[in-house]
User: Which sequence fits this backbone?
């Protein structure tokens, strides 16, 4: 049973570019959440998708957008990249249930130069 | 509003001695609380979870945590540290009425000295 898989593992972009990160949830899970983890910090919630809709959103600008597909996989898009967007981006999957535990992928390390 | 405060950014213990990682939480609702561990270059792994059942929660690898509502604390302990316990530990709270938005602490880095 595959866990949460993310691609790519590493990515280097320049300021102003756009990036797309991908996530496949753990088998059976229908909810995907995205987190940003800056160096030396705890992960911060970006948004959550369920039934192909954004259900909750953290304190991130509109440059951060996402999508969930019918097979529950998800994408995170970031436009107009800034140096401060450099971070580890974590995808987590779960069942749609309040307080249900999250299963995390290993993340995508994004570097913006 | 929900938040967690991890009281120590770094903890060092000798192998075989007890581990104590401290966490205080703030919540507008009855909280669910978690401890996650992050080893270098690996994803976050759930250690244990509290959801209003027993206040003493046992997790994997010999870790346990006690929920104390009066102190708004959820400290993580282990009787005897092992070298493989060296990692970053995160205390997490979630209390949203719908969905499961997790609020992470800033983490505690555990060093185990041989």
Assistant:
């Amino acid at each position: 049973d595959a866990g949460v898989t993310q691609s790519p593992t590493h990515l280097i972009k320049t300021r102003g570019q756009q990036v797309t990160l991908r996530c496949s949830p753990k088998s059976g899970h229908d909810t995907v959440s995205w987190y940003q983890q800056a160096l030396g910090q705890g992960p911060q919630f970006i948004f959550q998708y369920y039934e192909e809709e954004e259900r909750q959103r953290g304190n991130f600008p509109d440059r951060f957008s996402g999508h969930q597909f019918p097979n529950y996989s998800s994408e995170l898009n970031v436009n107009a990249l800034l140096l401060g967007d450099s971070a580890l981006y974590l995808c987590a999957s779960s069942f749609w249930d309040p307080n249900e535990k999250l299963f995390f992928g290993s993340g995508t390390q994004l570097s913006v130069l | 509003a929900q938040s967690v405060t991890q009281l120590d950014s770094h903890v060092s213990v000798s192998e075989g001695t007890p581990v104590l990682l401290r966490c205080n939480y703030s919540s507008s609702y009855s909280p669910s609380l978690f401890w996650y561990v992050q080893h270098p270059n690996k994803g976050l792994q759930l250690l244990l979870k509290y959801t209003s059942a027993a206040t003493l929660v046992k997790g994997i690898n010999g870790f346990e945590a006690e929920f104390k509502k009066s102190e708004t604390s959820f400290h993580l302990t282990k009787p005897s540290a092992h070298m493989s316990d060296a990692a970053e530990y995160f205390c997490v709270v979630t209390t949203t009425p719908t969905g499961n938005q997790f609020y992470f602490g800033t983490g505690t880095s555990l060093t185990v000295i041989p």
